[in-house]
Design brief:
By secondary structure, the chain is of the alpha+beta class. The protein has four helices and five strands, in the order E-E-H-E-H-H-E-E-H.
């Protein structure tokens, strides 16, 4: 059954790893099976758009990729790994998340007042003896 197997070359920074996959496998699953640390806050559900990668070959565009990526990203081969089905040999560039991260070092704090419609009122009752 060798005809069902394809090679996926994963490139991260200056290193490459060639992985064997089956036709129909999900790209994110292949990345995980090969112990590559990849940012997936939504756990591959297609709701966050964080598992961006660049695929050298022409691939189909999944629904989540269309939702989270702009037209120029799609044209340049950017896809979501969770939304990519492997159909042939692929070369995939994974993003260096550490290099791409930005850290918030300043901000603006605004003062605001809360004026709720309902309020809580505490009552205390005195115990009385009625005869």
């Amino acid at each position: 059954m060798k005809e069902n197997k394809v090679n996926v070359k994963l490139i991260l920074n200056d290193s490459e790893k060639i992985c064997e996959a089956n036709i129909g496998d999900n790209l994110l699953d292949i990345i995980r099976k090969n112990n590559i640390d990849f940012d997936t806050p939504c756990n591959g559900n297609g709701s966050c758009g964080k598992c961006r990668c660049k695929i050298k070959e022409n691939t189909e565009i999944g629904a989540s990729s269309k939702k989270h990526l702009n037209k120029s990203e799609l044209i340049s081969g950017i896809r979501l790994a969770c939304d990519t089905e492997i159909k042939s040999d692929l070369t995939v560039e994974l993003s260096n998340k550490i290099k791409d991260m930005t850290v918030l070092i300043s901000g603006v704090e605004k003062e605001f007042k809360i004026n709720p419609f309902c309020t809580k009122t505490l009552y205390s009752f005195r115990k009385t003896n009625f005869r």
